Amino acid sequence: MAGTGSVSAATVVSCPGTAIITDQDFTVGTDSGSASCFAYGPGNVSLPGANLLDKTDDGDAPGSVTLSVSGLGGTSGFWSILVPTGYKLTNAILAFKTGVATYNPDWAAFSLTDGALSGSWSVDKKHGLSHAGLYGRLEVSEVPLPATGLLLLAGLGGLAVMRRRRKLA
Predict the structure, then answer these.
(1) By the 8 A CB rule, do 1 and 23 touch?
(2) pTM above 0.85, yes or no
(3) pLDDT tens string 7-38
(4) What pairs with residue 87 in β-bridges?
(5) pLDDT tens sequence across 43-95
(6) d(CA 40, CA 5)
(7) Sheet holding 66-69: strands in order across?
(8) Which of 92, 122, 104 is nearest to 32 (CA)?
(9) Cα distance between residue 12 and residue 34, in whole Å
């Protein structure tokens, strides 16, 4: 099921955000950027076509994006994403899964805007968080040519012109 709630920086969004008492709500707050309820459901996290970048219950590959989540086993905590230097995270989806299939949904996924790299999370029932996963794409950041590079090229060009004038004289 897809959700429709979204929030801006420093606010909280619930997923699925329904009023049914037997439902379990997951909430995510962002320190910057924004989040929206992307999907939720029973059982294991199911995001067909999504690219898993990191999961809290496996090891991190060196140089890869890192998802850190505090409060595993509990009902609230904080999350953060560390993106390697020279890369940017796009199409980010942050998914949370509880351990016991008593309440529906067992998991919820939140779409994050670019720049949403940390925040808080919570679950409103007694079942603690089993694990979290980060889906998305890592893209190489565009590296701007610094002004000093342009000055260096201009200086070398000037030296070349002066050398040519000396040869002609």
Answers:
(1) no
(2) no
(3) 444 678 999 877 666 678 899 999 988 999 99
(4) 140
(5) 889 899 899 999 998 766 656 899 999 999 999 999 999 999 889 999 999 99
(6) 13
(7) 12-15, 26-30, 118-123, 76-82, 66-69
(8) 92
(9) 9
